Amino acid sequence: MSGALLVIGDVVTDVVARHHGPLAPGTDTAAVIRRLPGGAGANVACWAAHWGCPDVRLLGRVGADTAAWHERELTGSGVRPFLVVDTEAATGTVICLVDGSASAERTFLTDSGACLRLDAGDWSNALLDGVARLHLSGYLLFSEPSRGLVRVALAAARARGVPVSLDPASAGFLTDLGVGRFPTLAEGVDVLLPSRDEACLLTGLPDPADAAAKLSRHVPLVVAKLGAGGALVAASGRVRARTPALPATPRDTTGAGDAFTGAFLAALLAGAEPEEATAEGCRAGAMAVEKVGGRPPTGAG
Asked: What is this structure's pTM?
């Protein structure tokens, strides 16, 4: 393992509500509700540490309301947090509605709060000292302040020869952003890790393999996460490998893509080839869907 992983992204409080049967508008629907630490960027960092990366750092912005709790949770997961405490905005909150049926599909209601206020002023080039890889959460692209941070961090990483990965994060928010803006915002990224929906949205192609191949003409390496369909690796305009998903009994799919990304990056840092790292990502994704919440279980990976 050579060098640290620096993740820049969102730290939020997840309120996970697992309900059985359809939601009943205008009245009560029974659910099991838990308050958990989350955020795509924070989840990726925790899964990378869980998967054996010994030096994982996270830059994020939280409100004073829950800053201490989030710092404890990250530190306890093996992540070194660099949290900017916002005195004006509360920590972001996501309500995760999880269908209790076999698919365990989730729907998010998102109040990004302090996450969207992370900006270039929160950056220091010293954050890259000893860093071998930089990962950016796509949620950074959805506000102008954090887009400014992305530009500064990408430039600093390029100057030091540090490869950069990006997870587009949200098909819904990408639509609001405008997919035509994405290539410019992602310029300089070495690895793109979209979901099936994100890959198809970004290219306008219905088949995720075709979409990943097209994206890999612009980004050196594309790893498309297909959920129960596994994952595929594309480079230089063609699909290089397909990796099946591992069998799993889903309880909550929240954070499964983050788990994949964290394990994938940890494996790359350990010297794995992209295809081998993709298999590790699939293993982590299968583990993630069998537990509630977006963070890894305690113990070794």
From this structure: 0.92
